Amino acid sequence: MTAPTKAKQAQALVRRYFDACNAADHQALLDCFTSDAVHYFPPGLPGAPWRGAKAIADGWVWCVKTLGSRWTIEKVLAGESGREAVIEWTHWKTATGEVLRGDEWYVFNDDTTRIAEIRAYYASPVNKAEPVNKLHDFDYEGRGYAMAPPSAAPKLS
Questions:
Q1: 79, 90, 123, 139: which has the fewest Cβ within 10 Å?
Q2: For all residues of the chain together, what is the average pLDDT?
Q3: Is the pLDDT of residue 96 over 90?
Q4: Rounded distance, CA 64 to CA 35, Å?
Q5: Where in the numbering of this chain does the SnoaL-like domain appear (predicted)?
Q6: Any idea of the CA torsion for 25, 51, 146, 93, to the nearest 10 degrees?
């Protein structure tokens, strides 16, 4: 059996991170990041950027508890070296009925075992008056994108 390529290792790490987000698993989230990782966001998110693995884990657990957040990965591309990847995602805020789509650029540590940096880009400016934030006239359903959350948000106390 051969070892996975660095690109496949990077893709697996991103998927593990999203699984940890959906599970609101604080420890699993911590395990995905370098201790000094930074998650950058577009303007408007209070407290952004999130600096450090703990801040990132705390932020996503809060989103699941408060917003009923669920995430799907639509596309993943990883560089051959395993040092960088880009993804397209959907963030389902089931408690508020909002949907946000966007992309993220990932930078990994040298051995592609942890995420060192994420730079998030939204598909469009967040418009709170719209229940689904998306690109104008883009056929999400026709291109095979998720049209509903992957599952109900877990009940967390």
A1: 139
A2: 92
A3: yes
A4: 22
A5: 14-117
A6: 80
Tens-place pLDDT, residues 97-107: 999 999 999 99
Per-residue pLDDT for 143 more than 90? no
Structure tokens at 111: 């051995």
For the chain, give the DSSP string.
Answer: -PPPPHHHHHHHHHHHHHHHHHHT-HHHHHHHEEEEEEEE--TT-TTPSEESHHHHHHHHHHHHHHH-EEEEEEEEEE-TTSSEEEEEEEEEETTTTEEEEEEEEEEE-TTSSSEEEEEEEESS---TT-SB---TT--TTTTT--SS-SSPPP---
pLDDT at 1: 67
In the block, residue with structure tokens 């291109």: 143
Fold of 6-122: Nuclear Transport Factor 2; Chain: A, (3.10.450)
Strand order in the sheet with 69-78: 50-51, 33-40, 115-122, 98-108, 84-93, 69-78
CA distances from 25 to 45, 62, 107 (A): 22, 11, 22
What's the pTM value of the predicted model, to 2 decimals?
Answer: 0.84
